[in-house]
Amino acid sequence: MTNQNLVVANDMVVQLDYTLTLANGEIYDSSDETGPLEYIQGQGHIISGLEEALYGMAVGDEKDVVVTPDLGYGEYDPEAVQTLPLDVFPPDMELEPGMAIDLYDEDTDEEVEAYVAEVDEDSVVVDFNHPLAGETLNFHVKVVGVRPATDSELDHGHVHSDGHSH
Ligand code: ZN
Q1: What is the pTM of this model?
Q2: 156 alpha carbon to ligand 1 midpoint, in Å?
Q3: Which residues, 6+ apart, have CB-to-CB distance to 81 below 8 Å?
Q4: Which of 1, 74, 135, 146 has its CA 20 to 30 A from that of 162?
Q5: Per-residue pLDDT tens for 43-102?
């Protein structure tokens, strides 16, 4: 019994090389810089449009996958932008456009991730849309590893890399 015939299916740990190109041709992200993406298939850890396209792929298989915003990071919501007074941020925080920040939402009692859109003299424009909201995403993917997740990985809902277990 070897792992030669394993394909991407639910509860498999998948290692994926990918390049993400935006509609304007800009390469947004690539595993060349970070190493392969490693995740458990079927648990919604990656955007649904990409996850759906990977079922049945074997190690070495490559594919181009186009993901529309509804199956990616959602449509851009112009309402999801707020101007906050600068003094709600710690004075030593260096705010720059594009940086991700965690904000506390009193309504839901949860931290939400947002992005700095603009820094003015006494206010900051914060965008709650994902930076890729509204974008059609062009992935080139190559499966570089597939193995069954262990019981504890399934239990924890994340991959335990080599030498790491808890
Ligand atoms: Zn764990």
Answers
A1: 0.80
A2: 5
A3: 117, 125, 126, 127, 128, 129
A4: 1
A5: 999 999 999 999 999 999 999 999 999 999 999 999 999 999 999 898 899 999 989 999
45 CA from centroid of ligand 1 (Å): 15
φ, ψ (nearest 5 deg) of residue 11: 70, 20
Separation of 166 CA from ligand 1 center, angstroms? 6
Q: What are phi and psi of 162, to 5 degrees?
A: -50, 135
Cα of 127 vs centre of ligand 1, distance in Å, is 32
Handedness of CA 154, 158, 163, 166 (dihedral sign): negative
CA dihedral 138, 131, 18, 70 (to 10 degrees): -50
Q: How far is CA 109 from CA 32, 88, 89, 100, 104, in A?
A: 38, 17, 18, 19, 7
Q: Distance, CA 90 to ligand 1 centroid (Å)?
A: 33
